[in-house]
UniProtKB/TrEMBL annotation:
Protein's name in the database: Lysine N6-hydroxylase/L-ornithine N5-oxygenase family protein
Protein species of origin: Pseudomonas lactis
SUPFAM superfamilies documented for this protein: FAD/NAD(P)-binding domain
Keywords: FAD, Flavoprotein, NADP, Oxidoreductase
InterPro entries in the record: FAD/NAD-bd_sf, Lys/Orn_oxygenase
A Pfam family per the record: Lys_Orn_oxgnase
Lineage: Bacteria, Pseudomonadati, Pseudomonadota, Gammaproteobacteria, Pseudomonadales
Biological processes, Gene Ontology terms: intracellular iron ion homeostasis
Associated pathway: Siderophore biosynthesis
Length: 447
C-alpha cells in the first residue's frame, strides 16, 4: 500500500476532506450523484473527471446508431421513476416528448441519449472538477484518509472513494507496436478517422471484430466514404444475431445479480457459456440486415467494395510506407494471405474484464497504488463485495472503497457496461457507503 502522510495544505479545494470522492463522472457515477441527492446522503461529496466535460461514447456517435436498451433503463428510473432526472423528463423539459414518441423507435438514438447524459450531469456541476486525470491514489493508515493526486498536481482528500474508471480497451498483441494514428480502437474511431481523411484520400480500411460495433463502423464507412473498400476480419463464420430472447434478457433483472454473485466459479462459467451472445460477439437484426442488403445491392451494381474475411486470425500487422499490411491465417484451410495497402485498421476488439485470462486485468489500473493491500483470490484478481466494496487483505487496512462498474465477473451481465442496473447499483453503494461512514441514521432522517 502506498502510504501518504496527509497534509491538507496542498489539497485541491481549500484543504477540505470529503466524505466521499467519486473518480470519473460518466454514467455510473452520475447515477450515484443522483442517488446521493435523492436518498439524502448526509456527507460531503466531490467527483473528479479527466475530460473537460461529461462525454458518453463520443467516438461512436454514428448517425442512426441507437443505445440497444429500453429508454426507461436510464440513469434513475428503475430506482425512482418519479425522479426529475429520467430520460422521459429530459424529453419533456426539452420540448421533444411527443416528437420522440412519434418516431416509433424501439431504442433511442445514441446521440440523443448522450445529450441526456450531459443534461443530467449539468445539474451536478458544483460537485464536479473537470480536467482532473487521476495519477495516484494513496491511503494514510494514520488518518484513515485517501489522498487522490491528479495530473495538475492537485491533491484531494476523502474518507472514502467510489471508482468508476470505465472499461479498458482490448488491443491484441499483434497491434501493440503499430502507429496509433492508423491502427486504433473503436474508442478513438471518429477522431482518428477524420485526421486520416484530412491527410489523404482513404481507399482501403480494415475493421477487426464480429460485434455490433464492428457492423456499425462498417455501415458508417460505407455511407461516409462511397468509394472506400472495406474489409472485415473476424474469427467466426459471419455476423451472429444477438440473443434478445425475453428469457435471456433476465440477465438484466436485479434478481439475476444475486443469483450470479452467489454462484460458484464453475456455475458462473456455465452461465456465461449459455448467455454469451446476449452481449458479446453478436449484433442486432437491424444492422445485420442493413449491411447484408447493402452488400447485395453492391453485387447488383457490379461492385465488391465490402468484404468479410471469416475464420481468420491476424498473424502480423506490418507498416509499409504510409499504409499497413495484415498477414491473415485461414483457420479452416491452414493457409495464409496478405492484406496490403490499408490506410487504417479499426479494432472493434472489445474491452477487458476483471479476471486472470490473457485479455483480462486483475484490477483496474487506477488502483495500482492500492493493489498490494486489496483482498484478492488465488489468481490475484480483486474480490468485490455484493455491495461493490473492495476489502483490504488480511493485515492491511483501507478506508471504504467501491468499484462502480467493471463488476461483470462477480455480479453478471448487468454490470458489463449496460445502463440497465446503474441506478440500482448506485442505491446499493449509497446504502453501504452511508453505513461505512456512520451516516445511515442521518440519511434516514433526511429521507
Amino acid at each position: 500500500m502506498s502510504v501518504h502522510n496527509v497534509s491538507t495544505s496542498d489539497s485541491g479545494r481549500d484543504g477540505q476532506v470529503y466524505d466521499v470522492i467519486g473518480i470519473g463522472f460518466g454514467p455510473a457515477n452520475i447515477a450515484l450523484a443522483i442517488a446521493l441527492e435523492e436518498l439524502g446522503f448526509a456527507g460531503t461529496r466531490l467527483f473528479l473527471e479527466r475530460q473537460g466535460s461529461t462525454k458518453w461514447q463520443p467516438q461512436m456517435m454514428l448517425s442512426g446508431s441507437d443505445i440497444q436498451n429500453h429508454p426507461s433503463r436510464d440513469l434513475v428510473t428503475p430506482r425512482n421513476p418519479r425522479s426529475r432526472y429520467t430520460f422521459t423528463n429530459f424529453l419533456f423539459e426539452n420540448d421533444r416528448l411527443f416528437e420522440h414518441l412519434n418516431l416509433g423507435l424501439e431504442f433511442p438514438l445514441r446521440s440523443e441519449f448522450a445529450e441526456y447524459v450531459r443534461w443530467v450531469a449539468g445539474f451536478f456541476a458544483k460537485d464536479v472538477v473537470y480536467n482532473q486525470a487521476v495519477t495516484s491514489i494513496q491511503a494514510d493508515p494514520v488518518s484513515n484518509l485517501y489522498c487522490v493526486t491528479t495530473q495538475t498536481g492537485s491533491k484531494f482528500f476523502a474518507r472514502s472513494l467510489v471508482v468508476a474508471p470505465g472499461r479498458t480497451p482490448v488491443i491484441p498483441q499483434v497491434f501493440t507496436d503499430c502507429a496509433a494514428d492508423q491502427v486504433f480502437h473503436l474508442t478513438q474511431y471518429l477522431g482518428r478517422l477524420a485526421q486520416l481523411a484530412q491527410q489523404r484520400e482513404l481507399k482501403r480500411v480494415a475493421v477487426v471484430g464480429g460485434s455490433q460495433s464492428a457492423i456499425e463502423i462498417m455501415l458508417h464507412l460505407r455511407h461516409s466514404y462511397p468509394h472506400l473498400e472495406i474489409i472485415n476480419i473476424q474469427r467466426g463464420y459471419g455476423f451472429r444475431l444477438k440473443d434478445t430472447s425475453q428469457f435471456s434478457e433476465h440477465v438484466y433483472f436485479p434478481s439475476f445479480v444475486d443469483q450470479y454473485y452467489n454462484s460458484s466459479a464453475e456455475a458462473k462459467k456455465n452461465i456465461n457459456r449459455h448467455l454469451h451472445y446476449t452481449n458479446y460477439s453478436a449484433a442486432d437484426a437491424d444492422v445485420i440486415s442493413e449491411l447484408y442488403v447493402g452488400m447485395y445491392e453492391e453485387k447488383l451494381q457490379g461492385k465488391n467494395r465490402t468484404t468479410i474475411k471469416s475464420f481468420r486470425d491476424i498473424q502480423a500487422c506490418t507498416a509499409t510506407g504510409h499504409s499497413y499490411s495484415l498477414t491473415l491465417l485461414d483457420t479452416q484451410a491452414g493457409t495464409t494471405e496478405q492484406l496490403p495497402e490499408l490506410d487504417a485498421v479499426v479494432l472493434a476488439t472489445g474491452f477487458r474484464n476483471l479476471g486472470a485470462g490473457a485479455q483480462d486485468e486483475r484490477f483496474p489500473s487506477i488502483l495500482r497504488d492500492l493493489a498490494e493491500s486489496l483482498d484478492c483470490d488465488a489468481q490475484g484478481v480483486i474480490r468485490i463485495g455484493r455491495d461493490y466494496r473492495l476489502s483490504a487483505r488480511a493485515g492491511c487496512n483501507l478506508p471504504a472503497l467501491y468499484l462502480n462498474g467493471l463488476c461483470e465477473s462477480s455480479h453478471g451481465y448487468g454490470d458489463a457496461g449496460s445502463f440497465s442496473l446503474l441506478s440500482l447499483r448506485a442505491r446499493e453503494i449509497f446504502t453501504s457507503l452511508s453505513e461505512q461512514l456512520g451516516l445511515e441514521d442521518a440519511a434516514e432522517k433526511i429521507a
